[in-house]
Backbone:
């Protein structure tokens, strides 16, 4: 099986996937570190909710980055619909998590900038995935 980059592979999906994955990693780290800084003298622990969300964000970030890389390789050539659907699903998850972070539903000590950035990238991922599914374009 030959694995290589496809010349028709779209850079927009790759860039969105990489940016989305990095945002997921940064947001997860912000949840863990920010919560520890909030209570330095009392209990230096992370709440179970923040820990679970951070681990989920780390996993989502890894899956988004792997999917973005696969989408521009020849391996992803036969799975256009699956990759487009997964990009829409990742975008919806990022939109929901980013909205909850920006809206203050998730207790973060760090800036809400990650939340707003995740909302923007989530919307762009949904749009890009829906365009891919209609036109047969690559990510």
Residues:
């Amino acid at each position: 099986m030959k694995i290589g980059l496809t010349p028709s592979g779209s850079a927009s999906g790759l860039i969105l996937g990489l940016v989305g994955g990095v945002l997921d990693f940064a947001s997860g780290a912000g949840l863990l570190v920010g919560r520890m800084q909030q209570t330095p003298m009392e209990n230096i622990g992370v709440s179970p909710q923040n820990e679970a969300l951070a681990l989920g964000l780390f996993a989502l970030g890894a899956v988004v980055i792997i999917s973005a890389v696969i989408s521009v390789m020849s391996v992803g050539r036969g799975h256009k619909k699956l990759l487009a659907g997964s990009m829409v699903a990742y975008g919806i998850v990022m939109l929901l998590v980013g909205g909850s972070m920006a809206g203050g539903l998730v207790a973060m000590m760090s800036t809400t900038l990650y939340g707003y950035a995740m909302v923007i990238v989530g919307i762009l991922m949904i749009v890009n995935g829906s365009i891919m599914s209609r036109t047969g374009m690559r990510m």
